[in-house]
């Protein structure tokens, strides 16, 4: 196996709030291999976005980050602002959820892309403009030359997300983090955007981390899946394994709540995610888990191999096949 | 770019074309209000008790004080537009020289106070917004609250006490003069003397402006700083300074500049309280004294200038808004 380009070890993120410390990410390990498309799946508040914002150094001052994030030989946790700045947008870039508000309304599209280029190279203004138009063409924007001179409000949501992607891949980063890139878009546009991401991944050899709560999106494009719950990775496996033989009760619950042909009723997961100001002891999912036993509250389960997956459930072995 | 300039020009011309009927309508309303509110003929008789009926008739003629308001207004308008302005009722002085001086004095005071006030206000607002909830934020907020709460007649008198009364007691001479534009009896132009006379009134007005704009800029910038595109900008790996100036301030200034244009427009009407406390011969003092005497020939041109400047600065606000925010179309 290749060495991972992004290696996260025991990452913890704590926010200090007026109500006390809120531990949003409680020690996750995660590897992203070059050119691979990895999914991070979980509900809102499961810590999936926060983990990667922490890697980018984009969290507010109230956040404390511990652990290790290695990107291409650079340690990002505790790195100087200067080092982080030189990495952001060059080796590691991010696509955000809402393309409508991710672009600055008062600057032209072309200028916003060429700013990204010029931030990390000595490219001339003119060369950057030309490259920006090329990038717009790569992400499938018609008449890129004219469009580069327009403002964000002159673009539709899907077109703006293409612009954001063009900006993110401008410097051919090693890793591209796509934080719910299709959530704010129409279903018809979603497929197009995923296709654009896949295309640039192939063309630039970029590793992509797709953060989403939509297993349908994951099924379409990803090779590896990390399922997160309450700030922990609870299951990790190949896409086929996740769908065919899920081991963690939470993953099973997620799959049962997906619409499927021939199934009349969806089965939602009962209850709500835990309050992270005061998470339950042991396995955080036990409060909603139909298989919860007394032992589940004893200690925080670690990821352990089971069949083709890694799973963080002490009862997973006995539940397999049920 | 040329197309854009053409668009702006067309917008300005169209708005100016609209401003003309507006100016007529508003000055007509002002004319009616002044006739009802001050009764110009009675004021004339009161000030000039020995005026002959012929003189009174002439006064009515040149000022357009016909019993029919519409006919009278047009009579006044013809005289006004042909620059055949009637003289003041008291002392029969020419109006324009007085009005011109008052306007120049107020513009000088207003421009100085607005420049100082808006500049420092914006700086303090930015300074506070960069650490929301921090000590400097609390400091700026408190200072702004105090600044807004102190009325100009209190701060003016405090400043006069410190820099004139106590200063002369402690050091033997006053630091800044407390009234007028020049010492009594002075003739000719002297920039240094003029600047010294302006320090205290400018300070009084600027305190208010600083307080208002610090709060305004702070909240506007806080809005912008928490927006998604600021995170995008930061994710590009550009310097914090560039993130703030190129992406933050430009957006935060959009609402502030618009309000500033309207505010500066309203200053032309004079800073009535401040001008009176400092005996500063500006538009506010001009208005108070001529209104007190019911001096119709002095009041009408003052009104026209105020209305015109409000219309003008409204136009300026619209143009600057569209210039700063590409989402706004001029049409």
Tell me about this structure:
The complex is a heterodimer of chains A (322) and B (331). Chain A is built from twelve helices and twelve strands. Chain A is of the alpha/beta class. In chain A, helix 4 packs across helix 5, helix 5 packs across helix 7 and helix 7 runs parallel beside helix 8. The longest helix of chain A is centred in the middle third of the chain and has 18 residues. Chain A is globular, with a radius of gyration of 20 Å. Chain B has 331 residues and is mostly helical. Chain B is flat. Classes of the chains: A alpha/beta (322), B mainly alpha (331). The interface between A and B is medium-sized, with 29 and 22 residues.
In short:
The complex is a heterodimer of chains A (322) and B (331). Chain A has 322 residues and is α/β, with parallel strands linked by helices.
What is the residue-mean pLDDT of chain B, rounded to a whole number? 89
Beta-sheet strand percentage of chain A?
15-25%
- Classified in CATH, the superfamily of the largest domain in chain B is MetI-like
Q: Would you identify the CATH architecture of the largest domain in chain A? A: 3-Layer(aba) Sandwich
**Helix/strand/pairing category of chain B:** mainly alpha
Order of helices and strands of chain A: EEEHEEHEHHHHHEHEHEEHHEEH
Looking at the structure, the CATH topology of the largest domain in chain B is MetI-like fold
Q: What is the number of E strands of chain B?
A: 0
Most extensive interface, chain pair and sizes: A-B, 29 and 22 residues
Based on the structure given, which CATH architecture of the largest domain in chain B is correct?
Orthogonal Bundle
Q: Which topology of the largest domain in chain A does CATH recognise?
A: Rossmann fold
Low-confidence spans of chain B: pLDDT under 50, at least 5 residues? Answer: none
Q: State Rg of chain B.
A: 24 Å
Instruction: Describe the main β-sheet of chain B briefly.
Output: none
Binned, the helix content of chain B reads: over 70%
**Inertia-based shape of chain B:** flat
In DSSP terms, counting alpha (H) and pi (I) runs of 4 or more, how many helices of chain B?
Answer: 13
How many strands in all of chain A?
12
In N-to-C order, the SSE pattern of chain B is HHHHHHHHHHHHH
Which regions of chain A have little confidence, pLDDT < 50, spanning 5+ residues?
Answer: none
Structural class of chain A: alpha/beta
